[in-house]
Design goal:
The chain has a single domain (38-214), classed as NADH Oxidase (3-Layer(aba) Sandwich), CATH 3.40.109.10. 41% of the residues lie in helices and 11% in strands. It has helices at 5-17, 25-37, 53-61, 81-100, 104-112, 147-165, 178-185, 210-213, and strands at residues 73-77, 123-129, 169-173, 192-200. Strands 1-2-4-3 form a 4-stranded antiparallel beta sheet, sandwiched between helices. By secondary structure, the protein is an alpha+beta fold.
Length: 229
């Protein structure tokens, strides 16, 4: 059920004060279903999201873990038509460059893939990491400074799951020149682009990734990437 951002904040505060929740078997089943049905959406309906829902999703995403409690994520809602158009052009050029590097059947398949929902999606959300933030006092960053960007990725995934729980699809557009995107969105020079997200209601839902359905790649079993030492 969607809640206004102020009400959602009140509920989160109440949950914090109520003590440790009990996650039962049904919750675990539902959580597994959420993970299975979280998909990278590229085919959106144009229906707008309810007022306040995006703010609620970002508030939940900000509960994600971050190194040293640095909270380095910066969320930019892209509404201006000229800025959206610049991002679409950025994607189109990067997509053509990627296609030019392929040949044969792979190139033909790539050309058929729909790799972004930038035109149809009602919400564009750029996610940056601020590597200069003093929040967290630098804890945990000396040996792994990239943990700041990893923290922002955790927030993206948290938003992705929260959105899917509300029936909202998310598409991560990575075929972009990040420097051009930063310039087009007029953000501080030190911010680094982590993700450009499209949000909206999907044309249809599917538990299988679209790239798997199209034959681009198959999901690998977890046993093949789990090691013990």
């Amino acid at each position: 059920m969607w809640l206004p951002a102020t009400q959602a904040s009140t509920i989160m505060e109440h949950m914090h004060l109520a003590g440790t929740p009990l996650f039962d078997d049904q919750f675990r089943v539902n959580l597994a279903a959420l993970l299975v049905w979280r998909r990278d959406v590229r085919r959106f309906r144009s229906d707008p999201l309810p007022a306040g829902l995006l703010e609620q999703l970002v508030a939940l995403a900000c509960l994600a873990p971050s190194v040293g409690l640095s909270q380095p994520w910066r969320w930019v809602v892209v509404d201006a038509p000229e800025r959206r158009a610049a991002i679409v052009e950025n994607f189109s050029q990067a997509n053509q460059d990627a296609l030019a590097m392929l040949a044969g059947n792979r190139a033909a398949l790539y050309a058929r893939l729909k790799l972004a929902g930038l035109v149809e999606a009602p919400v564009h959300l750029a996610v940056f990491v601020d590597p200069t933030t003093e929040t967290g006092h630098g804890l945990g960053r000396r040996t792994m400074p990239e943990a700041l960007a990893y923290s922002a990725v955790c927030a993206v995934h948290t938003l992705w799951l929260a959105a899917r729980a509300q029936g909202v699809g998310v598409g991560w557009v990575s075929i972009l020149d990040p420097a051009q995107a930063r310039w087009a969105l007029d953000v501080p020079e030190q911010w680094q682009l982590v993700a450009y997200l499209c949000l909206g209601y999907a044309e249809s839902d599917d538990a299988e990734p679209e790239l798997a359905r199209e034959g681009w790649e198959a999901r690998q079993p977890h046993k093949g990437v789990l090691f013990r030492r």
